[in-house]
Amino acid sequence: MPDQFKPETLALRTGIHRSQFNEHSEAIYLTSSFVFDNATQAAARFSGEESGNIYSRFTNPTVTALEERLAAMEGAETCVATSSGMSAILACVMGLLSAGDHIVASQSLFGATVNLFNNILKKFGVETTFVSATDVGMWEAAVKPNTKLFFLETPSNPLTEISDISELAKVAKNAGVWLAVDNCFCTPVLQKPLALGADIVIHSATKYLDGQGRVLGGAVLGNRELMMEGGVYGFLRTAGPTLSAFNAWVILKGLETLKVRMDAHSRNALQIAQWLEAHPNVNRVFYPGLPSHPQYKLANRQQSTGGGIVTFEIKGDRAAAWRVIDQTQLISITANLGDAKTTITHPASTTHGRISQEARDAAGITDGLLRIAVGLEAVEDIQADLATGLG
Ligand SMILES: *Cc1c(COP(=O)(O)O)cnc(C)c1O
Predict the structure, then answer these.
(1) Which of 126, 229, 306, 384 would bridge 121 by S-S if both were Cys, CB 3.0 to 4.6 A apart?
(2) pLDDT for the residue numbered 1
(3) Is the separation of the CB atoms in 179 and 210 below 8 Å?
(4) CA of 203 to the centre of ligand 1 (A)
(5) Taking 90 as the threshold, does the pLDDT of residue 357 lie above it?
(6) CB of 12 within 8 A of CB of 257?
(7) pLDDT tens-digit profile of 15-46?
């Protein structure tokens, strides 16, 4: 597929391998294994002499179709699909790092990622230093001789801090470490980390890539050397956090509408953010598409729109924040995001509830903070639903 095609075209026209039936919509190959013509072919497949499918823990045509499509959209050489976003991060670190290696990571990461780095990887001899998402100097200063990986998310959850991917890519290159970016909030439609110098892109396909809250999935993308046999794929095919063919198919179909959905999420989110910013009972709004965002210029340069996540701090305590949630009739009270349906959550008592009050204060996760993942309902209806509890 020519490189000049835009992501929305690539999302519809790549990864298509029609069967003998010439189906127009992608087929699903629900099979755990694949048959060989004879023993010679079986041996050739297993030795790698002949390419082709063997067993769906290794490869499956529906999963391969998704991998090709996502790789085209992110501008990556290769993609390895995984069973969830967390298993994508696990496959990335287990495939590329060894005991004794060191990670420098943003302190504004998804909660489970922090737990994975802090509690699980530490048991296997991989240490992580957490630094500010926005202070490039801190990343540089945290590099040790055994540092192998920089890991970040931008915009961050829930405060939408923006990390400067190009600047951090330069630091990473100088230090000889890989830069991995979790591109979950933006998707390749809004931001392409590899084009900005990152080495690895991570996705939780559970969020916007599916986009309708149906399945879990994940992906790791990068060059062939990092992704293949000796790296991420080598871990995946042996350890087995493989994406199911059914989930791959759901996500493939989700990708077809990613661009129109992201445009609509961003449009609705900007309107909600502007309305909240003008609301007398709101202290502060965190949204990269607002000129009041501390990194508005960087966000404008790095991502094409502000995305769908709006966080705001109300004037009041936890009870007042919970009142806004409890008064909603339309918006779903759930911590998931990237769904067509608008969702609302109170980070201090849910996604960030397990960390200490001190750590929450340091991270700016106050009791008055609410996060909405703005969906595709009419923006007036979302606004009216929030207005009830806001007073
Ligand atoms: C949800 C999420 C993950 C984890 O993805 P799962 O599919 O739930 O495993 C990782 N990173 C970010 C930014 C997320 O929002």
Answers:
(1) 126
(2) 58
(3) no
(4) 7
(5) no
(6) no
(7) 999 999 999 999 999 999 999 999 999 999 99
Domains and CATH numbers, the chain: 7-255 (3.40.640.10), 259-390 (3.90.1150.10)
- Which one of 113, 156, 204 would you pick to mutate in the ligand 1 pocket, going by the greatest count of ligand atoms within 8 A of its CB? 204
What is the model's pLDDT at position 216?
98
Distance CA 373, CA 16 (A): 31
Q: Tell me, what's the pLDDT at 3?
A: 63
Pair 254, 284: CB distance under 8 Å = no
Residues near ligand 1 (Cβ within 6 A): 84-86, 110, 112-113, 153, 157, 182, 184, 204, 206-207, 216, 218
- Percent helix, strand and coil across the chain, each rounded to 5? 40, 15, 45
Alpha helix stretches (DSSP H) within the chain: 7-13, 39-47, 61-74, 85-96, 111-115, 136-142, 165-175, 187-190, 224-227, 232-239, 245-256, 258-277, 296-302, 318-326, 357-363, 379-390
Interval 150-165 mean pLDDT: 96
Q: Which atom of ligand 1 is nearest to the CA of 337?
A: 15
Q: What digits encode the pLDDT tens for the residues 41-86?
A: 999 999 999 999 999 999 999 999 999 999 999 999 999 999 999 9
User: pLDDT at residue 312 above 80?
Assistant: yes
Q: Whose CA is nearest to atom 6 of ligand 1?
A: 85
CA of 126 to the centre of ligand 1 (A): 21
User: Residue 116, by phi and psi: left (phi above 0), alpha (psi -120 to 50) or beta?
Assistant: alpha
